[in-house]
């Protein structure tokens, strides 16, 4: 399964959604703009966008919620250990109140993986970040970057776009 995303204005992304009504798009907004995301076995309908292979998935993406994407540049040699680290992870995040979905997305071009999580609310995400499970999962990462890191990771955060009724 693949994941596809592109950025644009809300108006532009809503027109894409209207044009491709058979696709279940997830539209999101942030302070820096809007994003359309969808998953499919087929090819991307976006003329400009980012394409990923879904390596790991749990939960179901919802039309309402809060999305955090941890964008992590990974060296070519670091891909396998990076993915293995996530494959070995305990699914404690999945048991947290407010958890909705998790995806580990491998880039089809470039080197930046996306760790996609969706929560019912910002507070649910903050509760995860402050949990013992989070501290255990991220133990030792604050002191030095892992060997697989090609550059500094960065977060992008979105709220699912609520449709006007």
TrEMBL record:
Annotated protein name in UniProt: Antibiotic biosynthesis monooxygenase
Organism of derivation: Virgibacillus indicus
One MF term in the entry's GO annotations: monooxygenase activity
InterPro entries, sorted: ABM_dom, Dimeric_a/b-barrel, Heme-degrading_MO
Keyword flag Nucleotide-binding: no
Keyword Oxidoreductase (UniProt): yes
A Pfam entry, by short name: ABM
Keyword annotations of the record: Monooxygenase, Oxidoreductase
Record-annotated ABM domain positions: 66-158
Coiled coil: none
